[in-house]
Design a protein that fits this description.
- The structure holds two protein chains of two kinds.
- Chain A is mainly alpha-helical.
- Chain A has eight helices and no strands.
- In chain A, 40% of the residues are buried.
- Chain B is mainly alpha-helical.
- Chain B has one domain.
- The radius of gyration of chain B is 15 Å and the shape is elongated.
- The two termini of chain B are 19 Å apart.
- The chains are: A mainly alpha, B mainly alpha.
């Protein structure tokens, strides 16, 4: 089960509103390669894993992604909480504001709502681990894109840089989990059976 | 009650120690028998426990178990900051 510590994993202290940045960064909240998808993906995949080490990685990375989700929300919240009506209208933030005012709602920068189609839980440990490695790279690229946008805003740059670095570490861990899995399976033909489903007699 | 600056510094330090634990935890998930990593983990675990206890007594409870007052449930009360509020 989950416990909560009343603090962010990395500090977020943004002093100036910026509706344009908020609209872009919200993609890491509810977008296709964002933290909500990441946490739901890993936390969903762990049930069907036959190996404890992999289940451990999925639980622990999935939990850390929830902490990242919270950080992204804090960034978007702090970028929007003091917006004036003029700023809302000027930056096209009115489309989001109409349905959510200044509330935080999971969607991509383009408006696509968060949905389970953004991730898979295939019930096949090899497939799932490759999906996870791809997911971490996609998240890393998205953070790279955000960093280019926020170069002149150090308050925003720092937490985003932290989040990006974590994705790279997660990628490494999933790679190790895949190696552990491959070691446990028949090395001559590790597609021979799905250890989460078939039984080997 | 210490100053806001002191409180933030303490919180920041807790964040650093916890981060060591999180990163080590992920490493230990795939290297469960690495003795030196395990020793590091145990060492910093104790430190974090102590820091969270100190912080919660001085400022506000960081976890529900650290609610120290039997007159007020300070876990989510008026005086307790929300994690996402940020500084001024």
């Amino acid at each position: 089960m989950w416990n909560y510590e009343n603090r962010l994993q990395f500090p977020v202290n943004i002093k100036e509103s910026n509706a344009a940045l908020a609209q872009a960064i919200i993609s890491q909240y509810g977008g296709p390669d964002g933290e909500m998808g990441a946490s739901m993906r890993y936390l969903s995949q762990r049930y069907a894993t036959p190996y404890r080490e992999v289940a451990g990685v999925l639980t622990d990375v999935g939990t850390e992604e929830l902490a990242h989700l919270e950080m992204v929300a804090a960034i978007v919240y702090q970028l929007t909480k003091d917006l004036s009506m003029e700023e809302i209208k000027k930056h096209g933030f009115d489309k989001y504001y109409i349905d959510h005012t200044l509330g935080i709602w999971p969607q991509a920068a383009g408006g696509v709502p968060f949905n389970a189609n953004q991730f898979q839980s295939k019930g096949d440990i090899i497939t799932d681990l490759f999906e996870d490695m791809a997911a971490e790279q996609k998240a890393r690229t998205t953070y790279d894109n955000i960093l280019r946008l926020v170069r002149d805003y150090p308050d925003v740059y720092e937490p985003i840089k932290f989040l990006r670095a974590r994705e790279v570490v997660h990628f490494q861990r999933f790679g190790e989990a895949l190696r552990i899995t491959q070691d446990k399976l028949n090395s001559k033909n590790y597609y021979a059976f799905n250890p989460g489903f078939d039984t080997c007699n | 009650m210490g100053t806001n600056k002191e409180m933030n510094r303490m919180l920041n330090d807790i964040g650093i120690v916890d981060f060591i634990l999180v990163d080590l935890m992920l490493y230990l998930d795939t290297h469960p028998h690495d003795q030196s990593a395990l020793n590091y983990f145990t060492h910093y675990s104790k430190i974090k426990k102590k820091m969270v206890q100190e912080f919660s007594m001085k400022y506000y409870p960081l976890t529900k178990e650290h609610n120290d007052s039997d007159k007020e449930f300070r876990w989510n009360s008026q005086g307790t900051p929300l994690a996402w509020e940020g500084g001024c």
